[in-house]
Amino acid sequence: MFTGIVEELGKVKRIQRGSKSIVLTIEAAKVLEDVSLGDSIATNGVCLTVTSFTEQEFTVDVMPETMRHSSLGELKVASEVNLERALRLGDRLGGHLVSGHIDGLGTITAKKREDNATVVTIEASNDILKYIIHKGSIAIDGVSLTVANLGENSFDISLIPHTSQVTLLGKKEVGAKVNLEVDMIGKYVERMLDSKKDNNNKKSDIDMELLKDNGFLLA
Q: DSSP 3-state helix, strand, coil percentages of the chain (rounded to 5)?
């Protein structure tokens, strides 16, 4: 589990390509301070497992399923990546709960300056947009951000100068692909509403009215 607060930018040092998978070796510093074999490190928002490491780099396997649903297959040697270590119990939750399990890809369609902020428009499929709400949270390339505006085929986020400087989002141009992970709470709610019957063949007590009455949905 992660928070969407990027700790540092790493750099891809080596890529070993299989037929449908890759092995990445990434140069880093901060995320290696207390690393152990088997630790999870979010890499551009994707939860990956450390299989080996030195004082300057670590290696991870990227399986075919991850290649299909993320932008990691587009990485090249010297590409920069957002890095975050897994959340520890007792840590501050500065962003929101992020699993590192990517829901799909988005495409940056516009960037514009608004005073000290950079507004980024991201186009996404309806399968992802249905979980996004105005002022809700979303992880983009592993960065926890707030949805500033929601359209029919896209949504906007606003980057403060610090986020633009310390993550890849400030550097990505129009046309670039980004990894998207929606707030998992919405998916759990949808699953409960879709489950009309439980194992006892009884109708679920959870419906839209119950959620509204208890403050989970706006009236």
A: 20, 40, 40
